[in-house]
Specification:
Largest sheet: 3 strands, parallel
Distance between the termini: 38 Å
Bound molecules: glutamic acid
Order of helices and strands: EHEHEHEHHEEEEHEHEEHHHEH
Number of domains: 2
CATH superfamily of the largest domain: HUPs
Number of strands: 12
Shape: elongated
Number of helices: 11
Strand order of the largest sheet: 1-2-3
Length: 306
């Protein structure tokens, strides 16, 4: 398999300039290192009819090209089941019957990090298991052997974060994101993961899981998000932020692409033209502050907000 990078959107709505900028970065990282670039639609959850087609159209409109067919997580249940089976055979999973509320109200173990699963169902005896099974369906959790794990990131260096007994399969039968992403990246030959830095805190869990599944850990680069002028993560309510809205405001896709490239300190033009000037080491480390298209258009060549 050719080594590859990827973009893995959740088809929950239209992509905005922040999502598109992450896609451009993932593309630049992959193409500048001779990798393939794959698209995976993360449709296990949060799928909205029609959103995938809009997302693919908008990626193509700004020049993001991809190799091979688009992969859908909903087609990959067998792979996820196999991985959970492998972990279960090694004694590395358990059934959990806790509701969200029970988890919130449970006293946390001493020194346990904030938000970590308190371990309520970790050691149920057979009689307790039988009673709980008769009451509600179980989620499957990882029986983690560590409390934290360290990953290396191209932009963040070493990053150590919490690993708890996180959910692998929800009690409604849906595979959890942390399991699916690890299994999919490995199965698709993806050895470079470039995505928004909101996902950095989940990365130690994923890398630890990869190690348990004897899967190589990919190279990670968690890139800064785009924020609005209040510093909050960009969202639809921040005005014209999707290609559709921007085009209605008279801004063509090629101009949006150029604004994104300029925000990265790269010259306007096609993505191929930007490749020769792309060096991860000189990327802005701060979020890009999107102040509205009027302001962005007017900011000449600078990295606004950087
Ligand atoms: N599907 C996730 C999202 O859209 C991205 C997951 C990933 O890149 O690992 O936020």
């Amino acid at each position: 398999m050719t080594p590859a990078g990827r973009f893995a959107p959740s088809p929950s709505g239209e992509l905005h300039v922040g999502n598109l900028r992450t896609a451009v970065l993932a593309w630049l990282f992959a193409r500048s290192t001779g990798r393939d670039f794959l698209l995976r639609v993360e449709d296990l959850d949060r799928a909205r009819a029609g959103a995938e087609a809009e997302q693919l159209r908008d990626l193509a409109a700004i020049g993001v090209t991809w190799d091979g067919a688009v992969v859908h997580q909903t087609d990959r249940g067998e792979l996820y089941r196999d991985a959970i089976q492998q972990l279960t055979s090694a004694g590395l999973t358990y059934e959990c019957f806790c509701t969200r509320r029970e988890i919130q109200e449970a006293p946390s173990a001493p020194h346990a990090p904030q938000g970590a699963y308190p371990g309520t169902c970790r050691n149920l005896d057979p009689a307790e298991l039988e009673v709980k099974r008769s009451l509600r369906p179980a989620a499957i959790r990882l029986r983690a052997g560590v409390g934290e794990y360290t990953v290396n990131d191209v932009l963040h260096g070493d990053f150590t974060g919490v690993v708890d007994d996180f959910v692998l399969r929800r009690n409604d039968g849906v595979t959890a994101y942390n399991l699916a992403v690890v299994v999919d990246d490995a199965a698709q030959g993806i050895d470079q993961v470039v995505r928004g830095d909101d996902l950095l805190p989940s990365t130690p869990r994923q890398a630890y899981l990869a190690s348990l599944l004897h899967i190589p850990v990919p190279e990670y680069a968690h890139v800064p998000l785009v924020v609005n002028s209040d510093g909050a993560r960009l969202a639809k309510r921040d005005g014209a932020v999707t290609l559709g809205d921007l085009s209605r405001a008279g801004v063509a896709a090629a101009e949006v692409r150029d604004l994104i490239l300029r925000s990265l300190g790269l010259p306007a033009g096609t993505l191929e033209q930007a490749l020769s000037g792309f060096t991860p080491g000189s990327l802005p480390r701060e979020p890009w502050v999107w102040r509205g298209v009027g302001v962005e258009r007017g900011s000449q060549g600078g990295r606004s907000g950087a």
